Amino acid sequence: MNRKKKINQTLKSKLKKMNAKLQNSSKPKYVSKAERAAIAAKEAEANLAEDSDECNTDSISNSETK
Fold first, then answer.
1. What is the pLDDT confidence band of residue 61, given thresholds at 50, 70 and 90?
2. Backbone phi, then psi, for 27, in 5-degree steps?
3. 42, 46, 49, 45: which is closest to 57 by C-alpha?
4. Which residues contact 9 (CB under 8 A, 6 or more apart)?
5. How far is CA 37 from CA 33, 41, 47, in A?
6. DSSP state string for 19-65
7. d(Cα 66, Cα 63) in Å, to the nearest integer?
8. Nearest to 6 by CA among 14, 25, 18
9. Terminal C-alpha separation, the chain
10. pLDDT tens-place string over residues 6-60
11. Closest by CA position to 13, among listed 24, 5, 25
């Protein structure tokens, strides 16, 4: 009886582990602190580029209206 119990126990545990690997996690993927800093720097750079483009177009449109 103990041998059957032990075999069933190991098979159940293997089945549980396989099912756990198949499940999708709802947790977001981990992003390291250095990667977050790099992403923030790129976003800040992009925002500065957009702001400078808007300023250039505003000054051009202001000079044309005068």
1. low
2. -70, 140
3. 49
4. none
5. 6, 6, 15
6. HHHHSPP-SPPP--HHHHHHHHHHHHHHHHHHHHHHHHHHHHHHHHH
7. 5
8. 14
9. 97
10. 999 999 999 999 999 898 878 888 999 999 999 999 999 998 888 877 666 665 6
11. 5
Question: Tokens standing for 17?
Answer: 């582990």
Q: Which two tokens stand for residue 3?
A: 């041998």
CA distance 57 to 51: 10
Locate 36 and state its tokens: 């977050």
CA atoms of 20 and 12, how far apart (whole Å): 12
DSSP label at 66? Answer: -
- Residue 38 token pair: 């790099």
